[in-house]
């Protein structure tokens, strides 16, 4: 997914949260006391604060702000590289004592990351990055990349694989930095300490860069935090932490083992030298907080919080709530799945006067969302009991409404955490039994159905689902009447595809087929679709320069960034593969169809679900599929030509002047080409050698076709098309007397699809020696149209890419889109890294490249 597409998805999800009234809130302007805030007059008990020790109202910190503001003013507006506000030196001395190293105070933790990593990781070094490390670290790593630092990311759930990358890089890079969080901000899990120790054992040039912002203050000597308490500190570690959150002041802090390294970062870290400082009022708060941390009082606050944490853990266990991981942190992540479930629970809790925050995409993977509950020392035992008690009502209710069980959650989150952390706190029997009872009650005819996105298995429409694993099992006439003329998926075409792509030896050519029909009580089909489980390239829809970078990696690993996907349609189809009767209860029918698709997705452990080639301007579909957790991604335009004429002269009359000139050139050129049609009942039978030649022409094009990057189709496919009544192979031979090859073999061909009044070309091949001077590609496009006219078809499908070339023939570009759902973020994160690398190494901006360039 490109950055613009991701932004659009995030905007849609956040808009849905705004509609639920749970994001971007502005509390009433009243005095705050830590536990609660008022929203439009309603008092809400809040579990959203990251001020874990509740120090923001502490008298010493408040007085520190007042004293510093009176003494130094509201700001000290000078670049730190020249002069700092007077308290800076004292604060850094306090933080050095508190943390046990050499500290630099930064105006924010994010700027601290940019300052430190930006100068410590250069073109001589490498970074191995946990893909769930905080976003601020990831942004800093991008800056390192621009200076030539080599970056590799590792999936959080497979963090142990970082050791392999570190081992490989340690021998070829000056320093290898392993970047992680001490406490992960969303799931609340702790970085595996033993894994870090193993990483440091690999080589002496391996170092750790740790963000412990969410571990600060609430644990350890002087409140120095979770990571330093568990791991310690030495010269191979650089620590970044926050002076916000539990520290309750402002800014961030970097910790180094030597003064030499501290001074190096201070002098060369751009944001430290040139950016504005932490302003005097918050410097005053930070100094007061540091002194408090260095006193015995800090342990009283820590113990109060730990008491609340122990209570919450015990109550969650007793209620059997679906906690992801149990530990000593004040962050509790209760698993739910799709964003809408988190929104529902949060909204219902809010209606009862309790504010909890849903953690959803993009901070966590789309289907691994939930409720993030954070405790502070402000909370009383009664507060903790209240929130757990109400969550124990609403979470099982929402799960039951969605037809989800604890086993479903366990399957979805099984690989969310690394190594030994990969053990979800399984819900006890009472929760499972409660969910089952609620599901049964909702399915009962006597029970009024709750208005939810997911209908019970037998809804008011009495829908039934039919599933088939071969098109042989589906009535041919029925199928073709619904989907025969769209997407190259007629009954005969799918039969041919099953013969080629079932039980193939190569992983990319071994597909599984699924056909789903949803009927109403009268037996009328309301929804129907073909699905395929197949291995796909994760960069299929990325920019060409990104796919080119990925293909370089595939020279060593052919299946790098390749994932098993559940596709609407097949990899040999194009078009709207979804039949949906909008005159009936189509949302319920679509939900049933997606349920079956989801079962197949889970059964085959697919990484991606893709509903592809749907109209881009269908707002109702946008809302419905986002509701099911599928995000919208623009697809390439698909070109269609509607034939409203009988002769080529009439065709010319429909075009603009420039397009008429272009077409007349193709017509004049056509006398030098011999077109032959080969198929069932037409033309000569092609020999094996001829099919091999056509396949070589196809590969010429496929190897260049990076804009829609797919695995190359096998030779067997052409042979099967040759024998299928749905397809024909059309070859073009250029007369040797007019520059054609002496051997007389085709210089271009295409595979044509025939069904009723529709004709289309799906794949093609050309000999590039005859493209630019002899126009073989353009002649092929013209011959597709001429052949369609001969067959009396009314609609010609010319497919995607090469927009300019196809528009010259008068086609209409139809905007389509893909709705996708990924099991986790990792492939997307890795592709973004590669995209950044491609942008840096490209000599031309994508905006300056010729759009849709194609052979002559």
TrEMBL record:
Keywords: Ligase, Transferase. Its cofactor is pyridoxal 5'-phosphate. One of its GO terms (molecular function) is pyridoxal phosphate binding. Residues 44-391 form the Aminotransferase class I/classII large domain. It comes from the Bacteria. Residues 676-802 form the BioF2-like acetyltransferase domain. InterPro entries: Acyl_CoA_acyltransferase, Aminotransferase_I/II_large, AON_synthase_class-II, BioF2-like_GNAT_dom, PyrdxlP-dep_Trfase, PyrdxlP-dep_Trfase_major, PyrdxlP-dep_Trfase_small. The keyword Amino-acid biosynthesis does not apply. This is 2-amino-3-ketobutyrate coenzyme A ligase. It comes from Hyalangium minutum. The lineage of its organism: Bacteria, Pseudomonadati, Myxococcota, Myxococcia, Myxococcales.
